[in-house]
Write a structure and sequence with these properties.
It contains 14 helices and nine strands. By secondary structure, the protein is α/β, with parallel strands linked by helices. Strands 3-2-1-7-8-9 form a six-stranded parallel beta sheet, with helices on both faces. Strands 5-4-6 form a three-stranded antiparallel beta sheet, with no helix packed on it. The structure holds ligand BV8 and zinc ion.
């Protein structure tokens, strides 16, 4: 019991597995801590990237309009990290659990969905590889029944045109994405970015040569926004996360919510666990440290998720 007399979260893995075994609709809400073991820096906490820069100063349309050179260096740095990164055992545990034939051994008859705030694409990589291993590359095997992965903050390799009349989106994994950004990684590490790379040297739209950005621009006309919402891009503060209504549907049906490697400080993702609990569901937090609201969780497994998750879902 905490001093407030409220129940403390359980650390009992056997009890968690009993809850997992009886769960019918499971969701995982994931954050940067899921990819930390893959070498992708987190935002907050020790070594976090936001520690050096205020979140709002880099991941907003206003920041991009004011200083695209700074914002592009930040994203170039993270693109380069993502290109070198491989999924870790936490990604693999989620990928295996997304396959019904595997999941139903520990959670019979359950549905599952992964809602990630991460834009690094590592969950996609893990799911592709684990699926191929599970089906021994049998091309006829249909992944349709596998758990959906919703990248609600978009994908870092999507690059979008900022011109209202173009809206071109390209999945671009070029390294570096443009010559002027090449070799700026060290400056980002040292928080000594050169904020004066001219716009003409920053990534340009291949179709109309307007300035490109990592993510959808909210100045588009409605139909373009509709188009863009169907595409993935990086979602900045004040911009609408992708597939929110699908997320809401999954949250509303969930009776178990796994909260993995997130500080639970960015909304609306940070609301999901509380909503599941309000409808009678259970919440299990997997985090290296204490995180926002974790004392309300039913289970709290402190430690690296690349260790705790394979144990919990295996
Ligand atoms: C929106 C860009 C509305 C992508 C990011 C209430 C409801 C709705 C909105 C709001 C609200 N209150 C406030 C808002 C506004 C705002 C918000 O949340 N502000 C905060 C600061 C209060 N939200 C928004 O603006 C969102 N938009 O709601 O739009 C709307 C609706 C209709 C029409 C128009 C608009 C948009 C939010 C998206 C912002 N984009 N980044 C990118 O570059 O990646 S935010 C950034 O933070 C990242 O996306 C990241 O995914 C996200 C969350 O961070 P975490 O993933 O949790 O990472 P963090 O470093 O914080 O924590 C890591 C954790 O891992 C730590 O706890 C650590 O202990 C742990 N860890 C580390 N290693 C390990 C580990 N755990 C386990 N194992 C390990 N090995
Ligand atoms: Zn264009």
């Amino acid at each position: 019991m905490s001093d407030s007399g409220a129940l403390q979260p359980s650390r009992d893995m056997a009890e968690f597995k009993r809850v997992l075994n009886g769960a019918k609709n499971i969701i995982a809400v994931c954050g940067a801590g899921l990819s930390a073991a893959s070498g992708i820096p987190t935002f907050r906490g020790a070594g976090g990237l936001w520690r050096k820069y205020k979140a709002m100063s880099l991941a907003t349309p206003e920041a991009f309009a004011e200083n695209p050179s700074l914002v592009w260096q930040f994203y170039h740095y993270r693109r380069e990290k993502a290109l070198l990164a491989e999924p870790n055992s936490a990604h693999d545990a989620l990928a295996k659990f997304s396959i019904p034939a595997i999941r139903h051994q520990t959670a019979p008859g359950s549905s599952f969905a992964i809602i990630t705030q991460n834009v690094d694409g590592l969950s996609v990589k893990a799911m592709d590889r684990v699926w191929k291993e599970h089906t021994q590359g049998n091309a006829d095997a249909d992944p349709e029944a596998n758990a959906p992965l919703l990248e609600m903050h978009g994908r870092i390799f999507d690059v979008m045109c900022t011109s209202n009349f173009c809206g071109e989106v390209e999945y671009d994994k070029a390294s570096p994405i443009c010559e002027a950004l090449g070799g700026t990684e060290e400056a980002v590490e040292k928080n000594a970015m050169d904020a004066t790379i001219p716009k003409s040297k920053l990534p340009r739209c291949k179709k109309c040569n307007a300035l490109a950005r990592p993510g959808e621009f909210d100045d588009f006309s409605l139909e373009q926004t509709e188009l863009l919402n169907s595409l993935e891009g990086v979602v900045w503060f004040g911009e609408q996360p992708i597939n929110l209504d699908k997320n809401d549907e999954l949250v509303a049906a969930a009776d178990l919510c796994l909260v993995i490697g997130t500080s639970s400080t960015v909304y609306p993702a940070a609301m999901y666990a509380g909503l599941v609990q309000m409808q009678g569901g259970k919440v299990a937090v997997f985090n290296l440290d204490r995180s926002e609201g974790d004392d309300e969780a039913d289970f709290l497994f402190l430690g690296p998720c690349e260790e705790t998750l394979p144990e919990a879902l295996g």
